[in-house]
Specification:
With 472 residues, the protein is an alpha/beta fold. The structure holds flavin-adenine dinucleotide.
């Protein structure tokens, strides 16, 4: 080991994995150093992910709602979008939240070091700062939480007109024509925001459907919206070439029959997934192992093959979601503190913040089928919900995946306004080992969308009040 001051815990990466781990460890009384490239904690999630995208989606949702209000006789004039103001507002949200995290870290006496860290050995880090100077930090334990970055496609040229999610969130302008390559949640969220602001948006996806991680019945209401909001939705279509000039981008694509077309756009957003940041960390100077996809290999306690080093968040595997990173961080800290803890969540919620929102937790119907599980599916269509009807959300759906044998809730899926908020009940039900009857027998406030969970649970027993469903 290289001779230097030894810290009890160093956390590398200040995203939603790293900063809650650092704060929690400090709350448990540990001496904690947090290293990140930015001036404040926050990570991708706060600087160029969850938070800025949700700020833009909120603006988009206001536009959708204003348009939808025509149906009940409230008509607004055509909106004007001040892009500079919108960008500044989004930025102010980011600055406020990341600044707040900086303060919370200071209040806990977490030592924050801004710079790029790499391992010199299994007990020493070298942190290179912006001015080129280097600080060495020895540690008893380290938590690696360096996150991920957008995956690139080799055919994409280096051009400001060809953006990744970070570029799209910068909102340089509102392109008249935008092509989104990749029909996952990031592409659809950002595509829908740009469409609401007035861009003519197309999406191209290689697979036969958009949002393949979610059950098709949950995606259908979103697809209906997107068909009216997007210029075109191309599935089973492969992008063959992307050529950018100073003024536009031409994209050559082939459909499933091999028929080729070339379309021209003002900007292209590539959102084809994310890859873990495990390069240039000096991992070769440790025993930390990385798998074929670049994820750090960890055990059930999030410990790497190097006993003093833990890994959490996007670099430690799927699902690459902020709340999974946070949860793993707390597990790792508990283990370092000598508590008996393993990472074994029964359900990890996933939310697509489009309009309508899609959320699911636990097992999807497709996963249950793939695993050959005997399940019963019960649903509650929101057309039968009083609250959904008052909100113009009748297209929504709540669905339960329960074990056939004993009714245990294994999965919950929801599509509709507020699905992301509602899914928490489903996650709790799964974690607590609830059966459908527990949800059916719990009093839910009226009129709320949460009643749809209760009624889906009633449907499991064949007696949903407002839906004939499984009634015998
Ligand atoms: P990150 O948040 O990636 O943080 C890693 C940190 O490590 C960074 O701050 C980086 O500066 C730092 N770092 C990297 N290398 C070094 C080094 N060598 N030395 C020091 N510091 C280093 N997830 C959700 O749950 N909900 C959402 O709504 C959502 N929306 C998203 C929208 C977009 C557009 C994107 C791109 C992502 C979104 N995500 C969302 C995913 C979410 O952002 C990630 O899952 C989450 O940020 C992962 O957290 P993390 O702590 O693993 O790493």
């Amino acid at each position: 080991m290289i001779n230097t001051d030894v810290r009890e815990l160093v956390v590398i990466g200040g995203g939603p994995g790293g900063y809650p781990a650092a704060f929690y460890a400090a709350d448990l009384g540990m001496d904690v150093t947090l290293v990140d490239l930015e001036a404040n904690p926050g990570g991708v999630c706060l600087y160029r992910g969850c938070i800025p995208s949700k700020a833009l989606l909120h603006a988009a949702a206001v536009l959708h709602e204003a348009r939808a209000a025509e149906e009940f006789g409230v008509t607004f004039g055509a909106p004007t979008i001040n892009v500079d103001k919108l960008r500044a507002w989004k930025q102010s949200v980011v600055t406020k939240l990341t600044g707040g995290l900086g303060q919370l870290g200071k209040a806990r006496k977490v030592r924050f070091v801004q710079g790029r860290a790499r391992f010199l050995d299994a007990a020493t880090l070298a942190v290179t700062k912006a001015d080129g100077s280097e600080e060495r930090i020895g540690f008893k334990h380290a938590i690696l939480a360096t996150g991920s970055q957008p995956a690139r496609i080799p055919i994409a040229p280096d051009s400001p007109r060809v953006m990744d999610s970070t570029g799209a969130l910068e909102l340089a302008d509102l392109p008249a024509r935008l092509l989104v390559i990749g029909g996952g949640y990031i592409g659809l969220e950002l595509g829908q925001a740009y469409a609401a602001f007035g861009s003519k948006v197309s999406v191209v996806e290689m697979l036969p459907a958009l949002m393949t991680g979610a059950d098709p019945d949950l995606v259908r209401p979103l697809l209906r919206q997107l068909k009216s909001q997007f210029d075109s939705i191309m599935v089973e279509t492969r992008v063959l070439a992307i050529e950018a000039t100073e003024r536009e981008v031409t994209v050559r694509m082939a459909d499933k029959d091999g028929k080729e077309t070339a379309q021209t756009y003002d900007r292209v957003l590539i959102s084809v997934g994310r890859k873990p940041n495990t390069r240039d960390l000096g991992l070769e100077n440790t025993r930390v192992q990385v798998d074929g996809k670049g994820f750090v290999t960890v055990d059930a306690q999030r410990r790497t093959a190097e006993p003093a080093i833990f890994a959490i968040g996007d670099i430690a595997g799927q699902p690459m979601l902020a709340h999974k990173a946070t949860y793993e961080g707390k597990v790792a800290v508990d283990v370092i503190a000598g508590r008996k803890r393993v990472y074994e969540p029964q359900a990890i919620p996933a939310v697509v913040f489009t309009s309508p929102e899609i959320a699911w937790t636990g097992l999807t119907e497709r996963e249950a089928a793939e695993q050959g599980l005997a399940v019963s599916i019960s649903t509650f269509p929101w057309a039968a919900s009083g609250r959904a009807t008052t909100l113009g959300g009748s297209d929504g759906l709540t669905k339960l995946v329960c074990a056939k044998e004993d009714g245990r809730v294994l999965g919950v899926g929801i599509t509709g306004p507020g699905a992301g908020e509602l899914i928490g009940e489903g996650t709790l039900a799964i974690e607590m080992g609830a059966v459908a009857e527990d949800l059916a027998q719990t009093i839910h406030a009226h009129p709320t969308l949460s009643e749809t969970i209760m009624e889906a649970a009633e449907d499991a027993a064949g007696h949903a009040t407002h839906f004939l469903g499984k009634r015998k």
